[in-house]
């Protein structure tokens, strides 16, 4: 199990008390969390304990939410069974995916990612909330009686969020629907990148309001700076004032006639250059045998890779090949056994990364677009992969909140991946090891244009500095579809798992592609005299031309002395 028992964590009794229409919830069971002292001794105990407390509360609340909804009861956190106030202090990731009809009330200062992925419940916070309040909301009604942090209502699709004492930066960013009401001042970039929905502000807004918005409206009853390009500032019509006040439904939240409105404005449709793609593949690298003899041509090598092994303390996901292909939907992976039993069996054993409709062995790729779908997607998934290039930049506490909320939906033992571009590889590896992530995947196509061969020493040096001695493995996301040669090269370079796009989408063709990779990698291992893919080392690699040797630091074929890239600091 990822979340193992912790003997240092004092037991806190859980107590539920029904009184009229309210249920009091005071604490949870002792467990370990993502921030494990054995893995990340540099983490302060306070952070570890906050994560553990938060996980415990979610574990205890979950089974009671539906029952409380049926009884029209309110679950409370921040009070003891006697009704005395025991305010919360930093608990994060609480109450993800609140079901329809459920009601929560919280007292104290809460951390990030509270009431995310809402499905129609209600949460009243008598206090402050951290960042990402109601992120991915798809139906919750959330009331924060004091202030909230950054990214409130991030990527929300439906529902209502009311904040009564101001909010940080990027409120309503990437929202596609729903209503956000803010009383008090806001930070910068309110409604940034929103495509639909309504934001109402009774107060002053910060710089760049509506930046990048393509739809929706931001109504401001206060001071508003000059909006950025692509955003128009206009007065409201009488019809809009009436319509919006009817939607708000509360006299003290009504907007006056002189309120202003931000909407997208037409801009020139100019095509940019687009991202620069990598300038090469791995064909400039060869594989040479060691002194071992060649294996028999009928021998079968061990090509299995494990994700989430955790030094024998967890049940890992087994990959038939060290490969995680990416497909849009798990629906593309089904083959009727009666039509092609062999192809069906190949696909049924191979996990994929997918954006939608995962199978129980698949890993869901999380980005800003599918965030509200997490309750549905993760109920049937085998793991999660966070696209950090698409999600907002987060500090350590915000990442903890995201992990607590999201892993509650998929199960704490499920593998977790971080994916980020090559230009931020050290940050990726540091964050991944800090948060005890299973696989840190470096995206090569990050716009830098660096060839794959040049990325190998960068990944190797960073892995040695930040991942050695941790539970986190190094992965890579290629800009092309891999073959057996690519897998052998990358495994020899110290990379555990290779992610890539698929060369085709038809299920039978995918099975044939996987089968050909398996055949190729077995032939390569036999030629090299290796019985397992894990025996591949950098000593088996040679650069086949001067350019590849120069960017990769590998020995040039015919030369024995390596170039210094792998050792330079």
Would you kindly provide a written description of the structure presented here, covering whatever features stand out?
The chain has 569 residues and is an alpha/beta fold. The chain has two domains: 199 residues, 3 Solenoid (Pectate Lyase C-like); 282 residues, Alpha-Beta Barrel (TIM Barrel). 23% of the residues lie in helices and 21% in strands. The chain is built from ten helices and 25 strands. Strands 1, 2, 3, 4, 5, 6, 7, 8, 9, 10, 11, 12 and 13 form a 13-stranded mixed beta sheet that branches. An eight-stranded parallel barrel has the order 17-18-19-20-21-22-23-24. The chain has a two-stranded antiparallel ribbon with strand order 14-25. Strand 20, helix 5 and strand 21 form a beta-alpha-beta unit. Helix 6 runs parallel beside helix 7 and helix 8 packs across helix 9. It is elongated and about 85 Å long. The relative contact order is 0.10. The N terminus is likely disordered.
Estimate percent helicity.
10-25%
Report the sheet with the most strands, covering strand number, pairing sense and barrel closure: 13 strands, mixed
Give the CA-based shape.
elongated
Q: Which class do the helix and strand fractions yield?
A: alpha/beta
Beta-strand level of the residues, as a percent range? 15-25%
Low-confidence runs: 1-45
Question: Under CATH, the topology of the largest domain is which?
Answer: TIM Barrel
Q: Output mean pLDDT.
A: 88
Q: Output the radius of gyration.
A: 26 Å
What CATH architecture of the largest domain would you give? Alpha-Beta Barrel
By CATH reckoning, the class of the largest domain would read Alpha Beta
- Name of the CATH homologous superfamily of the largest domain: Aldolase class I
């Amino acid at each position: 199990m990822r979340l193992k028992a912790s003997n240092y964590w004092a037991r806190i009794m859980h107590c539920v008390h029904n009184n009229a229409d309210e249920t009091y919830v005071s604490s949870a069971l002792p467990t370990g969390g993502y921030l494990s002292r054995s893995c990340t001794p540099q983490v302060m105990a306070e952070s570890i304990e906050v994560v553990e407390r938060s996980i415990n509360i979610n574990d205890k609340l979950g089974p009671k939410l539906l029952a409380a909804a049926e009884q029209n009861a309110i679950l409370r956190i921040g009070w003891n069974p006697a009704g005395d106030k025991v305010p919360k202090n930093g608990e994060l990731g609480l109450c993800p995916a609140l079901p329809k009809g459920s009601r929560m009330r919280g007292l104290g200062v809460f951390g990030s990612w509270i009431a995310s992925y809402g499905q129609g419940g209600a949460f009243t916070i008598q206090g402050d909330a951290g960042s990402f309040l109601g992120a991915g909301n798809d139906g919750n009604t959330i009331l924060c009686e004091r202030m909230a942090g950054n990214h409130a209502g991030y990527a929300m699709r439906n529902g209502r969020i009311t904040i009564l004492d101001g909010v940080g930066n990027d409120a309503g960013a990437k929202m596609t629907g729903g209503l956000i009401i803010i009383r008090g001042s806001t930070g910068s970039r309110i409604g940034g990148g929103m495509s639909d929905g309504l934001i109402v502000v009774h107060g002053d807004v910060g710089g760049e309001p509506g930046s990048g918005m393509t739809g929706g409206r931001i109504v401001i009853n206060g001071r508003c700076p000059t909006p950025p390009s692509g955003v128009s500032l206009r007065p409201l019509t009488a019809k809009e004032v009436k319509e919006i006040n009817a939607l708000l439904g509360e006299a003290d939240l009504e907007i006056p006639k002189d309120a202003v409105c931000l909407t997208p404005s037409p801009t020139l449709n100019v095509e940019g250059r687009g991202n620069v793609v990598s300038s090469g593949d791995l064909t400039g690298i060869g594989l040479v045998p060691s002194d071992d003899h060649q294996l028999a041509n009928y021998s079968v090598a061990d090509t299995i890779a494990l994700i989430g092994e955790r030094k024998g303390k967890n049940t890992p996901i087994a990959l038939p090949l060290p490969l995680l292909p990416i497909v849009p939907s798990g629906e593309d992976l089904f083959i009727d056994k009666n039509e092609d039993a062999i192809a069906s069996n190949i696909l049924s054993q191979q996990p994929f990364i997918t954006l939608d409709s995962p199978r129980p062995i698949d890993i869901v790729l999380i980005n800003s677009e599918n965030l509200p779908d997490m309750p549905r997607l993760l109920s049937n998934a085998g793991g999660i992969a966070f696209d950090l290039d698409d999600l907002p930049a987060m500090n350590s506490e915000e990442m903890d909140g995201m992990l607590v909320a999201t892993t509650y939906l998929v199960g704490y033992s499920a593998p977790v991946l971080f994916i980020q571009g090559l230009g931020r590889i050290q940050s990726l590896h540091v964050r991944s090891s800090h948060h005890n992530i299973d696989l840190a995947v470096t995206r090569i196509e990050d716009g830098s244009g660096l060839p794959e061969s040049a990325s190998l020493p960068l990944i190797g040096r960073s892995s040695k500095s930040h991942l050695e001695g941790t539970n986190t493995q190094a992965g890579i996301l290629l800009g092309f579809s891999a073959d057996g040669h690519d897998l052998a090269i990358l495994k020899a370079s110290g990379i555990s798992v290779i992610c890539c796009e698929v060369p085709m989408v038809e299920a039978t063709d995918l099975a044939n592609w996987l089968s050909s990779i398996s055949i190729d990698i077995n032939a390569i291992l036999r030629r090299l005299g290796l019985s397992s893919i894990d025996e591949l080392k950098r000593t088996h690699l040679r650069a086949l031309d001067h350019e590849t040797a120069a960017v990769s630091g590998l020995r040039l074929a015919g030369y024995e002395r390596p170039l210094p890239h792998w050792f330079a600091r």
